[in-house]
């Protein structure tokens, strides 16, 4: 894994921060408390989440949210991870907006899923525990300052457990313990399975009892089947008789239905005759009424027809209208002359109008008006006479039409009466025929009743036999059901026996597994663990001794580890107390121990030659020792080494120097120029 970029926002003393990581040896240099270690904690948080770290120790005081984004390369893949922290209450902070981007493709994941994905990408074969730090990362890549010397000061057993955990040897012990637990659990089940063999004789006795009961029931079924044969023969005979009777009854039923139809026809014919007679009576009364009405009509034919009178009347009225029009004009002219006479002067020509000529004209006009009035009176009298004649003509024509209506009604009544009388005659003939047919149907009804009683008697006997057969079949079904139950019990019991036998075989097989686990598998794990432990001890001892000698140029002093990984300092073939070492020598001892541990863990995890992170690795070193750190790290031939330190002497060992400064309580990172 190679780091490429880290972005911080509201993480500890950082409001904003961004780092682009180059390859080579990178030094983050700054005073104590400037915020150097925060960069490493933020990197670990981005990769693996909080682990056992409290979120309150990462999120800046007074801030409600913060985030970390890390880009890195691993096995040819470009990976970007993002985690944010959100304050939901004063004491509660949770992770949100977690995502991972692999070669440009982004995935939204939960914090646990993020850690599992990162471990898979890095190839770290370790359990996924979201509340724990990555073991391989802590012992193969990143060495926090507080853990540098801590491992040397631990009690032997505790340090040995740490080494076993780092080298993942603890898994062999867990495997042995789990194997022992499995063997113990398997023995419990095996004993239970084998003990069940005692139940087989009782179950076999049950099967014999079931077989005996089943045989008795089978005998009963044979008896029932024999009775059923006789019953079915009787039923078949009765059914044949009923079939013949049913056919006869159907024929007789046809006759009965005919009788009903004949009686209905008989009643309908009589009703029809009564109706026709009533209609004849009604027609007789109506005929008498019409003849009386006909006799009462007197016909007096006028000299002219109504149309002729109407025509003459229209001509006289037209003449009258002309006379009235002429009268109106003459009368108006006369009025005008009389007005002029009163005025004595013509308003048009201003001549006197009382001259004899004008007065003669007035007198002549008066005579014309009187003549017209006489003509008008004569015409009015003629109109009056014509109206009287028209009235008589209209009465005559109305009477003619009324006589025609009466004659038409009388012809209809006569025709109806003729039809009614013929229909009554025909119906009376049919009624006589129906009486003969009804008598024949009545005899068929008597025969039908006799056959029906015979049919009902045989049907009752058949029903009894059917009920008997049904009861026998129910009994047979019940017995068969009981036999099936016994079959099921026998099958279930046999299956139970087979299961017990399977369990017994399984128990014996489990005993074989238990023997293999206890006598082969667990001892093999112990031997494998011992071989790996000794090889790791030998390799660790070589690296530990080499790293210490490189940093401490004192030929009289050397270091080694015992079988429990306890560091031993030798001076001129004598064991030297660690507490008597100088501060720089103790730091060199701790650094050599951690570098050796890093080297062995990387080798075991298959991640050699990648990234190494050291936090304040030179505490107490002399300037000469600090100067050698760069050479030692270069000898490791790593692609990227990140060192966090306040020692300026390390600047000569670094390829790139990032300066970390705290200004007004806020940390800032200054990239190398």
UniProtKB/TrEMBL annotation:
One of its GO terms (molecular function) is ATP hydrolysis activity. It comes from the Archaea. SUPFAM superfamilies: P-loop containing nucleoside triphosphate hydrolases, Rad50 coiled-coil Zn hook. Gene3D superfamilies: P-loop containing nucleotide triphosphate hydrolases. Keywords: Coiled coil. Residues 193-333, 362-510 form a coiled coil. This is Uncharacterized protein. It comes from Thermoproteota archaeon.
């Amino acid at each position: 894994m190679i780091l490429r970029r880290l972005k911080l926002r509201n993480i500890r003393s950082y409001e904003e921060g961004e780092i682009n990581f180059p390859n080579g040896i990178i030094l983050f240099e700054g005073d104590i408390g400037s915020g150097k270690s925060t960069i490493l904690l933020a990197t670990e948080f981005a990769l693996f989440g909080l682990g056992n770290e409290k979120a309150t120790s990462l999120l800046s005081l007074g801030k409600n949210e913060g985030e970390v984004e890390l880009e890195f390369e691993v096995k040819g893949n470009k990976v970007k991870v993002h985690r944010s922290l959100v304050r939901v209450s004063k004491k509660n902070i949770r992770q949100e907006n977690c995502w991972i981007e692999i070669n440009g493709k982004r995935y939204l994941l939960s914090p646990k899923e993020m850690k599992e994905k990162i471990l898979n990408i890095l190839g770290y074969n370790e359990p996924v525990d979201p509340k724990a730090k990555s073991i391989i990362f802590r012992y193969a890549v990143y060495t926090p300052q507080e853990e540098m010397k801590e491992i040397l000061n631990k009690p032997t057993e505790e340090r040995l457990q740490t080494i076993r955990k780092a080298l993942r040897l603890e898994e062999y012990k867990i495997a042995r313990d789990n194997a022992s637990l499995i063997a113990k659990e398997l023995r419990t089940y095996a004993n239970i399975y084998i003990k069940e063999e005692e139940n087989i004789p009782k179950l076999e006795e049950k099967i014999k009892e079931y077989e005996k009961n089943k045989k008795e029931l089978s005998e009963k079924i044979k008896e029932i089947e024999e009775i059923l044969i006789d019953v079915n023969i009787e039923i078949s005979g009765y059914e044949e008789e009923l079939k013949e009777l049913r056919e006869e009854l159907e024929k007789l039923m046809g006759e009965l239905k005919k009788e009903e139809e004949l009686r209905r026809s008989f009643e309908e014919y009589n009703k029809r005759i009564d109706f026709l007679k009533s209609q004849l009576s009604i027609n007789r009364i109506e005929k008498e009424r019409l003849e009386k009405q006909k006799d009462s009509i007197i016909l007096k034919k006028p000299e002219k027809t109504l149309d002729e009178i109407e025509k003459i009347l229209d001509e006289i009225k037209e003449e009258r209208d002309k006379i009235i029009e002429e009268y109106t004009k003459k009368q108006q002219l006369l009025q005008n002359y009389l007005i002029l006479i009163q005025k004595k002067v013509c308003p048009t020509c201003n001549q006197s109008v009382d001259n004899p000529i004008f007065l003669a004209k007035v007198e002549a006009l008066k005579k014309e008006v009187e003549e017209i009035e006489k003509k008008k009176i004569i015409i009015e009298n003629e109109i009056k006479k014509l109206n009287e004649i028209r009235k008589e003509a209209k009465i005559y024509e109305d009477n003619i039409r009324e006589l025609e209506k009466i004659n038409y009604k009388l012809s209809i009544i006569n025709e109806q009466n003729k039809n009614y009388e013929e229909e009554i005659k025909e119906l009376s003939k049919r009624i006589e025929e129906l009486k003969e047919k009804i008598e024949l149907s009545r005899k068929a009804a008597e025969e039908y009743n006799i056959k029906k009683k015979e049919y009902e008697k045989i049907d009752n006997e058949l029903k009894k036999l059917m009920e008997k057969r049904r009861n026998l079949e129910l009994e047979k079904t019940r017995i068969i059901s009981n036999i099936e139950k016994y079959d099921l019990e026998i099958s279930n019991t046999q299956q139970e026996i087979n299961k017990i036998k399977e369990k017994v075989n399984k128990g014996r097989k489990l005993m074989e597994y238990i023997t293999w686990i206890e006598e082969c598998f667990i001892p093999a794990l112990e031997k494998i663990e011992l071989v790996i432990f000794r090889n790791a001890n030998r390799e660790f001892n070589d690296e530990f001794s080499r790293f210490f000698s490189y940093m401490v140029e004192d030929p009289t002093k050397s270091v080694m580890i015992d079988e429990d990984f306890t560091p031993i300092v030798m001076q001129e073939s004598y064991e030297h107390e660690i507490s008597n070492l100088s501060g720089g020598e103790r730091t060199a001892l701790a650094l050599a121990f951690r570098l050796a541990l890093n080297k062995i863990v990387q080798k075991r995890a298959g991640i050699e030659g990648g990234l190494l992170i050291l936090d304040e690795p030179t505490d107490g070193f002399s300037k000469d020792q600090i100067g050698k750190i760069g050479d030692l790290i270069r000898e490791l031939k790593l692609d990227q080494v990140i060192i966090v330190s306040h020692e300026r002497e390390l600047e000569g060992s670094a390829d790139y120097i990032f300066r970390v400064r705290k200004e007004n309580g806020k940390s800032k990172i200054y990239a190398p120029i």
